[in-house]
Amino acid sequence: MKKRLVKRLIILCLLAMTWAAAGWAGDAKPLSREELDMIREISREIDSSPYLGGLHYQNGVSCQDCHGVPQPGWDDPPEAEQCLSCHESREALAKLFDKELARKWGNPHESHLGDLDCAVCHKGHLASTVYCLGCHTNAPFSIPGQ
């Protein structure tokens, strides 16, 4: 029941964004063709999406739970603080990371680059990317929800 309600709310938000793109919301910035196509795809596949947005939805998490607003924009990834409101802390996440991999390659949640924003690696509605692999090309890192 809750999943169905969340899905309906997501579709309603996506429709509102579409209406805004059509100019029905006053001075709203029109969405690009790519953004409209993404709205259609997300609304069709949110309950079966392999990406993080779908995994969150399948666990009863709404758009607002992550983005902090009922109708997030496309350039509006969740802030790290919003992620950490459910995922405890960076330290807790670091403890979940495979100990053997961390010993050999380092722990991405304890980066030598400091506290990176979660969205650098973790994408909501697209395949996630392991930022570390930009330099550490041989590291066997992966992210759930890719």
What does this structure look like?
By secondary structure, this protein is mostly helical. It has a domain at 2-76. It contains 7 helices and no strands. The chain has helices spanning 2-21, 33-45, 52-58, 63-67, 80-84, 90-96, 99-105. Helix 1 runs antiparallel to helix 2. The chain starts with a helix and ends in a 41-residue tail after the last helix. The mean pLDDT is 79.
Number of strands: 0
N/C terminus separation: 27 Å
- Note the total helix count: 7
Rg estimate, integer Å: 17 Å
Q: What is the overall silhouette? A: elongated
Task: Supply the key terms.
single chain, 146 residues, mainly alpha, elongated
Give the arrangement of secondary structure elements.
Layout: H1 2-21, H2 33-45, H3 52-58, H4 63-67, H5 80-84, H6 90-96, H7 99-105
